[in-house]
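Sample 1 of the test manifest.
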Amino acid sequence: MNTLTIRCISEALSPITHMQGVSGNEAMIAREPVTTAHGTQWIPFLSGNAIRHRAIREPGVLWLIQAYGLKGIISLAELNFLMHGGNLTESNRAEDTGRIAEMYRTWPLLRLLGGCLPNQILAGSLDVWRGVLVCAENTSVLCNDFGLRDVGLRPSEQWIDGYQYTRSDAKGRALHQTADAGLFPDKKSNTNLMIFNGQCVTRGAVFAHGFTCKAVSDLEIGALLWSLRLWQAGGGTIGGQASRGHGRLKMTLIMDEVLDQDGLCRSYVSHAMSLKDEAVAWLHGAFA
Amino acid sequence: MEIPQLLDSLTTEEFRQKLAGLSRETRGHTDHDVEDMAIRFASILPLVFGHDLDRLTLWNRIGSALTTSAAKTVDGDIGFFVQSVLTHIQAETGQAVSMPDMMDILGKTAAWSLEDRQAWIRHFQTHLIPTLIFARAQWNEHKEHTK
């Protein structure tokens, strides 16, 4: 058991639209206040919550569902536990340590991420860092966490742009396909074209982020790396508008020591497959 | 199932080198210089505004000329940018080439660094309306002096 810190950078291969809210028809990018020598600035970031889900839990769990043949078999409660961490819906006064130990043994990915059974909270061992935009305003944290020297980075505003799309109305071009054509004799005057737009972080911007794995075995590290590889192989998207090509990130590990990625991943995959029946039995037992 | 590729990795030193590409532009001129030059350029465009165009659309058309030309220009190509603007407002070639101010602006901006030229062109997209407000004031001042 050891504690491992993994630092990474993720470069935007397409506009990143990790949003915080909307103003009219315009989607506003997620920003956090950062205190700088020039006052408080609002800087785009990627939430640890989004990275945790999109880059680790979702790809890792979907792979297990496929590998264990659970599709169409597991209940919604079980799926919510695997995919979203689950909910505490019953009294949690009795702690079943045997059940926790068995989950840790059979589901290394869940030991890493933690979760919540109906009557028991299960702590995880992974801290996911927020994604920090590599820009002048974040120099301090980049120097501290990533060993960067102050190289005079560009200000964040140079990495922010906008996008605009239109949602058409079928009345404009395909009304004749419907049974309602007679209702709209003047089709052009009735079209209802909607423009929607928003802010985005531009291609080429880089986010620095990381993972702290606390008191973990090689199996949990393997589960983490395997999930990240699956995420990257699946497009590596984060945030919204992926259906329109947004949100693609290319992740690179920052490591000075050699990390046996392949060996760790193989051990995890081998372990997960060898305990398939026990893992599935544990899941069904926990939600029986 | 296809085995996903290994994640790429960099050392800390390689990471630092990669960040050199994200470092601040080497600007020789301040934002104030860029703004002044932008206003000056926009303020002389009424002099060469096409005779066939409706004079009542003067500032709207200059605005659209600057915006669309800035959007089309790559690599800080000042010559292309100016050509595109003048074409958009249907400037008469003979009139444009005989303007000392045009020569001065082209000469000075052509000597700027790539980053400064890009900043100048980008300024018309990001600060168009304030630029036109000051340009119009300068143009009106010019008209008063030449009455």
